[in-house]
């Protein structure tokens, strides 16, 4: 029996890249997966076809996670299709390009840039609030949020992005403290530079080579690396771990 058999998972921003890999990893261990997307309908449907083709269950669902009403409708649809969501992965990222050349420096960054990136935290809040009652009803739950190793080692100063990712530390640890008595764990994964996603496409080859050469495992991360790390936290193996984050970057950052 697969370790997540009978579980229902919601992965935000799951139509491509890291989100798609996470959805496939969870489905591969038996979870029924809601593949959330905002713009990439075709890609989301392809992820679902891939999961179903491998014998799994999945449902594509378009929802802007910064819209509280849309999130609640998505969770209701998940419950009607599969049952209460027991695994939530906060992965969705507002539009961002990791471009070390064209990025805004501190003199040029604006408050609006921060607010845009903090949309990820807003989405995590709405999604968590929507699924927690179902988790409490089931007597268990897993919430996993995707961070960045840049919060510990800002080798490139992406001010707005890194600040927004750092906010998940306080959010997740407060949530872990409150939800622990309900057997709900809340953890985080800080990924490194992922090769290659749409967001990292603008990263120069020079930077890629520097990061890979400085990494103990001598390579960049892949979406599948993050997918497997999420699977660890979502599984029974991490049932006594909460309020924690691990860095999944091949050893580049050792906090």
- Order of neighbouring strands in the sheet with most strands: 3-2-1-4-5-6-7
- Tally of helical runs: 8
Specify the overall morphology. Answer: globular
Q: Would you list the SSEs in sequence order as H and E?
A: EHEHEHEHHEHEHHE
Rg over alpha carbons: 17 Å
Question: Into which percent range does the helicity of residues fall?
Answer: 40-55%
CA-CA gap between termini: 36 Å
Average pLDDT metric:
93
The CATH architecture assignment turns out to be 3-Layer(aba) Sandwich
CATH superfamily, by name, is: NAD(P)-binding Rossmann-like Domain
Strand content: 15-25%
CATH class: Alpha Beta
Query: The biggest beta sheet, please?
Result: 7 strands, parallel
Based on DSSP secondary structure assignment, what is the total number of beta strands?
7
| CATH topology type | Rossmann fold
Protein structure class: alpha/beta
> What count of domains describes the coordinates?
1
Uncertain regions spanning at least 5 consecutive residues: none
Detailed description of the structure:
This protein has 255 residues and is an alpha/beta fold. It has a single domain, classed as 3-Layer(aba) Sandwich (Rossmann fold), CATH 3.40.50.720. It is built from eight helices and seven strands; from the N terminus they run βαβαβαβααβαβααβ. Helix 3 runs parallel beside helix 5, helix 4 packs across helix 6 and helix 5 packs parallel to helix 6. The longest helix is centred in the middle third of the chain and has 21 residues. It is globular. The chain starts with 7 loop residues before the first strand and ends in a 7-residue tail after the last strand. The model has no long low-confidence stretch (mean pLDDT 93).
């Amino acid at each position: 029996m697969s370790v997540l058999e009978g579980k229902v998972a919601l992965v935000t921003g799951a139509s491509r890249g890291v989100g798609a890999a996470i959805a496939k990893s969870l489905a591969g261990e038996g979870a029924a997966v809601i593949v959330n997307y905002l713009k990439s309908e075709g890609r989301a449907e392809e992820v679902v076809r891939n999961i179903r083709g491998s014998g799994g269950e999945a449902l594509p669902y378009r929802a802007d996670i910064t819209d509280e009403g849309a999130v609640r409708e998505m969770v209701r649809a998940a419950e009607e299709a599969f049952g209460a969501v027991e695994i939530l992965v906060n992965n969705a990222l507002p539009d961002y390009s990791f471009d070390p050349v064209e990025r805004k420096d501190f003199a040029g960054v604006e408050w609006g840039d921060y607010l845009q990136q903090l949309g990820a935290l807003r989405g995590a809040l709405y999604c968590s609030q929507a699924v927690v009652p179902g988790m409490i009803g089931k007597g268990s739950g897993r919430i996993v949020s995707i961070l960045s190793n840049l919060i510990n080692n800002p080798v490139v100063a992406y001010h707005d992005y890194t600040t927004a990712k750092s906010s998940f530390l306080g959010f997740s640890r407060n949530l872990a403290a409150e939800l622990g008595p309900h057997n709900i764990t809340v953890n985080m994964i800080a990924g490194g530079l992922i090769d290659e996603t749409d967001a990292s496409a603008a990263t120069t080859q020079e930077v890629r080579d520097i990061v890979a050469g400085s990494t103990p495992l001598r390579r960049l991360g892949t979406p599948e690396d993050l997918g497997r790390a999420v699977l660890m936290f979502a599984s029974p193996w991490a049932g006594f771990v909460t309020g924690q984050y691990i860095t999944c970057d091949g050893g580049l950052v050792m906090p």
